[in-house]
Structure prediction request, 546 residues.
Amino acid sequence: MRVLLLSMPDSFEHTPALAIRMPNGALTSLAGNLDPHHDVAVADLLLAQPSVQHTVDQLVRRAAPDIVGLSVMTFQRRTARRLIAFIRSILPSARIAVGGYDPSLAPEAWTNPAIGVDFIVRGEGELTFRELVRALEQRTPVSDVAGLWYRDGTVFRRNAPRPIGALDDGGIRLPARGARVLSGYTMLGRQVDVVETSRGCTFDCSFCSIIEMRGRNFHRFPLPRVLEDIADARRRGARAIFFVDDNITIDVPRFESLCRAIIDAGLNDLDYIVQGMTAPFARHGTTLAPLMKQAGFRYVFLGIENVLEQDLQFLKAGAKNSRSTAGEGRTNATLEAIDVLHRHGLLIVGGLIVGNPDDTPESIAANLNFAHRYVDWPYIQHPTPYPGTPMTRDFHERGLVVNQHVDDYDGTTAVTRSAQLDAEEIEFMRWKAERWMKVRHMAAVARHDPGFVLRNGPRMLAHTFRGSTWRSALGLEDARQVFQRYRAIRSRERHYLDWPDPFPAASLAAAGRPMEWDTSHTATWLGLAHDPKAQVRSVPAVLTEN
Prediction:
């Protein structure tokens, strides 16, 4: 069968495509776990932001897929529905499957026949999607495929959930990077790829969708498989690797073994990026940090979440961000973790959440000041009521959700208020402080990748300060006017194709409440944050056969 797998073009504010174009690892994993005789094309539409509609038109006409799979996050829902309608207009016979966080946790948002979805793959998709494709090829009932919802006429049938699978039995094969048909994955000018060494988390943070997807568990890939995955990415040109594990620091001895294995295999000539909790770095940093540095690690995304105890309690993130000290009880581990990582030359991407229910201007300012002083790149977000999370229930029960348009659920658009501050004020405070933190980081980038900064420095500044004018630079214009222009620009940037939403009312909120959409926008692209040189590689010739 001919299979086309698409990820959405919508990007996060903190990872602009000029600086970071990260692959969707789930799609290449799906491709790698299909039976090898299928013809599979993987397209990350992040690489085609200036020309999404043209790119998809090319791909669909050349590949003539029997089935199209779309990976969708909640804030990408509207883009995905428009893409489905566009694909249907070109190739009505194609079967459409959706998967990822949003279809898994809010499947009802995809079941209306007007949307055009045939299958919903819930949870981990490799085995479910493989069995679905087999059933379609062999014309056997899809009702036997665990983890699948499927359309039967005008109704959706719900199959039994698929149990969470272990990773140490070889059942999940390596990703098929050769199936990619777009090029241009970069991080600060270096070709980047993603590798997964484990899945799952045993903590219960109220804002996180992982637990809702998988439950509380932690499974590991064998280290030889991980090294093979890294080596494959490097052979294909990667010079930076992002470990996408949900929480790699749950098992610190294994993480240390991974670092040693990378060094022993001679794979420490790459830049590595990892994400983890503060407590393990505080507890084990004196041995772990120098090992990470020797292995080639450069950035650590640190899940700080918040520096105030009452906010950590609401986020249910205190356990992973504190450590027990003799005579002192439990103390916040954030500063200790940052200190030990910095002492060994590692850069901190600071993940914080501001705008919690009881936040005041002072508490938000405390977190922003902390980020300005201690982190190298800010990744500050607002509480977002994603489908199924405990946070969503809490915010709705307190009446603090002020925006149910899920295409705004991108983490940096404030869609909830606090008891004392409205959403716009919360977002304004974060936006105003963050711009200057990002500028400060350019010095570290210039030392490591001077050519990239020389070529792209003006565009990076233009992206960071979009909305600014010469009047605002001279102090002749209030920052709130700049903020409103920035929000308008950001809104326009998120319209990637000029195609109508087939069923606007189907874009349900995270809590399942109906809403109305404004479909009057036309697609606009400003071109400040994106590289127009990303190219569509030739789809394999076999995919053009009818």
Remarks:
- The longest strand covers residues 297-305.
- Residues 423-448 form the longest helix (26 residues).
- Residues 506-546 have pLDDT under 50 and may be disordered.
- The chain has 17 helices and 18 strands.
